[in-house]
Amino acid sequence: MSETMEVIDIVDQPDGSALMSMDVEPEQVSAFVHSGLMYLIEQMKVYDKVVDISPNTFKRSAKEIYLSDRETSTLFHFGVISALKRGMEESLCQQP
């Protein structure tokens, strides 16, 4: 597995957003999808004010979830957004 990922191109858009092209390994896609899911859970805790979720015991088969291409893509995007935000926050914290 490659430990690095390459950002190939970033194109600024008129609305202030940007399109980013990356070379990403399948394992990294999975990590971004998982990160996107964790990002959504954290956001729901903030906006829905969920403080404590009692633990449940699930069988392994209940933990295996199959996502559509659109769901995977959406979670991947949220994972990238989360990584960029964390990177920006770390960068701001390190400034003198």
What gyration radius follows from the Cα positions, in whole Å?
16 Å
- Biggest β-sheet: strands ordered side by side in the sheet: 1-2
Written as H for each helix and E for each strand, in order along the chain, the element string is EEHHH
What fraction strand? 5-15%
Number of domains: 1
Our count of helices gives: 3
Mean pLDDT: 80
Count of extended strands: 2
**For the terminal residues, how far apart are their CA atoms?**
36 Å
General shape: globular
Low-confidence stretches: none
Mind describing the biggest β-sheet? 2 strands, antiparallel
User: What share of residues is helical?
Assistant: 40-55%
Structural class: alpha+beta
Tell me what you see in this structure.
The chain has one domain (6-94). The model has no long low-confidence stretch (mean pLDDT 80). It has 96 residues and is an alpha+beta fold. The protein contains 3 helices and 2 strands.
Compose a concise summary of this entry.
With 96 residues, this protein is an alpha+beta fold. It has helices spanning 26-47, 60-63, 69-94; strands spanning 6-12, 18-23. 7% of the residues are buried.
Characteristic key phrases:
96 residues, alpha+beta, two-stranded antiparallel ribbon, 2 strands, 14% strand, globular
Topology:
Elements (H helix, E strand, L loop, with lengths): L5 E7 L5 E6 L2 H22 L12 H4 L5 H26 L2
Antiparallel strand pairs: 1-2
